[in-house]
Amino acid sequence: MTGVEQTAGRAAGAGPVLLGVRHHGPGSARAVRSALEEVRPRVVLIEGPPEADALIPLAADEEMRPPVALLAHAVDEPGHSAFWPLAEFSPEWIALQWALEHHVPARFIDLPATHTLAWGRQDDEVATEGERPPPAGTAPDGDTGPGPAGLRIDPLGVLADAAGYDDPERWWEDVVEHRGAGEGDALAPFTALEEAMGALRETYGSGGHDRDRVREAYMRLQVRAAQREFEDGVAVVCGAWHVPALRQKTTVAADRALLKGLPKVRTDMTWVPWTHRRLARTSGYGAGIDSPGWYGHLFSAPDRPVERWLTKVAGLLRAEDRIVSSAHVIEAVRLAETLAAMRGRPLPGLSETTDAVRAVMCEGSDVPLALIRDRLVVGDELGEVPPSAPAVPLQRDLTRLQRRLRLKPEALERELELDLRKENDAARSRLLHRLRLLGIAWGEPAASRGSTGTFRETWRLRWEPELSVRVAEAGVWGTTVLSAATAKAEADAVGAEGLAGVTGLAERCLLAELPDALPTVMRVLADRAALDTDAAHLAQALPALVRSLRYGDVRGTDTAALAEVAAGLAERVFVGLPPACAGLDADAAEEMRGHVDAVHGAVALLGDAPAAGHGQLRGRWQSVLRVLSGRDTVPGVIRGRAVRLLLDDGQLAQDEAALLMGLVLSPGTPPADAAAWIEGFVGGGSGGGMLLVHDERLLGLVDAWLTGVPAEAFTDVLPLLRRTFSAYEPGVRRTLGELVRRGPGTGGGATAAGTATPGFAADFDTERADAVLPVVRLLLGLDDMDDNTEDNNLAGVTG
């Protein structure tokens, strides 16, 4: 039977009209619309989970805007989920819209999600790394199928190869996207595609892939049921790969036998927003298309798609301050059409327009093309779902908060600056921190620009479709964001393994303003701190705990209890740190130096906290630093850092620091130990380079020591010194290099031999210092003040 005879037979009532499509194909979508207009079926059957039948009326809601997706998740395990995405140019979406507009029943006929999710759970349990199948409901189903020996083939790739194309996308554009829909027989393209898929199924079969066979058996049963109800007025929209199987003559008993004993799981289903970026294969999903933005343009452009597309490209480039004129657009259109003619294509496709843009608008550069692909070819379109769509209570509360705080979910990443002194910004911060605690990573903290205070926060926001699943998962903790975050924090505190984890959680509770969770967290924290005797663990936990105190003033949180726990933890650190620093190897010493730095900063904050109640904490810590700086059993890197911290706090005179450095750099100290001491004193990115620049006595000591290191020990010392000095800013390194190149001076204004500029010396150059005093007096206005004083005194005498 020829294709024309098959079409005529179906139109005359020989069976259901099978419209095989490519998912997310605008050409298929236009063809489906034309076919439905011609056939006028009494019911439309669509490939998709039948649990979504109750959600079909929402597709007609004015607030529903694709791209959207059907989301199914297991009730008892919300993280186990599957998506069925639909774009404006998806044939399934067009079929839904046609049915709703013409008041024709529409039904989904694929295997129910209750079985699909149960299958997916089994896969998760047995799959090994690298063998995990794609998520259920996201396979391009209809676009791929199993080949011999379990090998999955790409039907479009096989057909494109047979037609002499090396790119399946280009072949599909030529034979489907660039042909007019509705010209002549509206069913002709589906007949041709069915014949092609039939030939492929005869050659490759199903490869023993039971799941496709089971799905197709279920779809055949649904088609039969619709035929009994509506007789011959049945139209089916499904993946083209399935059409030969649905046309296959089988018995009801055989199909039911394939469905017997399928695993089940209780599921919920709803609509969720989707994005063009998630429709692209590059997002990690098995389903989709390489260029959803381009396909959306082809579907929506009423005429002259190439001219309209290149105009969009020109607008984007102009917005990025590139010089693109109307003449560029005209020339790019001509070039694209010429390339299409040379390549034997009916119309310019994405490859021709891209080549034309590169040559005409981008001057041969691929850099702007990356922006065009990201913004236009793929795109950041984010769909919308009406509030009436089913949702877990937590999702409804989140939506309410988003609207009240004017935080609209967006697919394009953006930065949000918050001033926590403002009520609305503080509420936004609380929401984002609570969501992070729940594992809903809508926003990630970023470094603030222009302020390091606690009253300002910077967030990077980007809404991903998967976050809807995370919201459903978090729904087990509560019905509101506040209650769920509180319950999750309490559970995390009880289940935390280490002390540092609990202290970090306390900080997050303060940031998220969860006062009801803090008592539980503090109780667990006190218990863990009392049982942990490892000084390194205590030192690691203290900074996060003390940082939390900084948020008390700006957020209005009572941190008195937290300060008491922190002060007690600090006392235990003071006692346990000196013995813990003895006898460490190089790696352990470097790690412990980081703990010493962190504890030093924490003590500074804790000593300023009015609720701490321990005014002597700084004094106690400085005593610990003195102990560390003088014990020979403590590694040099820690001793050097202790001396430096005491010097920075004004607890050690410059002469005393120079004396300690001189002792360490004496010939009796092994060079490797001396280098480690220097690294602790001036390394670690703590401003040590500037210290050497401004305190030339210390630089002279280091220089004299380094020039006296024996040749056999120099290769051991060099890596430590390189690591120390490489951390300095380029300007600091350059200044130090200039000083060292000039060599040591003699002080008092003397210059190094052969140079016009003094080098470095142990004493200050008073003559050079005196030379700048007139300029300083002028800048400060001291000369004017002296003149006024003299005038006033003179007036007083004459008066």
UniProtKB/TrEMBL annotation:
One Pfam family from the record: DUF5682
Spans annotated as Disordered: 125-153
InterPro entries noted in UniProt: DUF5682, LolB
Record-given protein name: DUF5682 family protein
